What does this fold into?
Amino acid sequence: MKKLILLLLITFITLLVTSCNSKNDPVTPTPQGNIYLTSNPAGAQIWMDGTNTSKITPDTVKNVDEASHSITLKLQEFSDTTFSVSVSGGQTSVVATVVLVSNIMATLYGPARIYETAGTNTGQPSGLDLSSGKAWGVSSDSSSLVDIYYSSSGYLIQSADLYPNLIRQTYFFITSNANLFNGEDSPLKNTGTWTNSITDTMSNYVFLYDHDGHYSKLKIVNSGGGVPGEPAWVEVQWYYNNTLLDNRF
It folds into this structure.
């Protein structure tokens, strides 16, 4: 009996000592470092491992566990950009400036020349297909593709449906800005004042909303002719947004 009690006592003391030693063992913390991020353009949200850090570029994400981390930069009108960053304890990982890619699918066309409808030949087209950037005659076999044309009546650039037998409607929104490349977005078709034509002396760009629901941004960049033997012409340049109902430029 005494041997049994002694054995149980030894076992208890051993467990007690082991438990105490375990509690006294220091827990080694995971080394931590930082990540410094910049982007072009700046102002992108910084997401790490699928969680928003509530920081925007340029900034430093601090106290990051030593490991490889997934970083995603998010900015409106730009595609999300994801990459990996390795973090070492006690160090700041500096990421080279991340160039963000626009997600606006707009094509720049022109300058394209179109001629007034009177006194022209087959090699002097009066109409434009905004989606392809091609000029077509308003009486040609491809006239059904014409969105806008240059009319001798009033010397207006106007919606194709104003020409006999053409049906494609295009609406114009006149602006007060001449810089086609300023990044301004079009107002939505159901806001503001839209019309069906502009004069050939318009110096500012205009926004267009075509028969298929696509937005364009167009400017007259040159003009000439209008003398005996040479019909009047204009050259236009425009952005065509390839995404249906997307008014961004």
Observations:
- The chain is about 10% helix and 40% strand.
- The chain has two domains: 32-99, 106-241.
- The two ends are 93 Å apart (CA to CA).
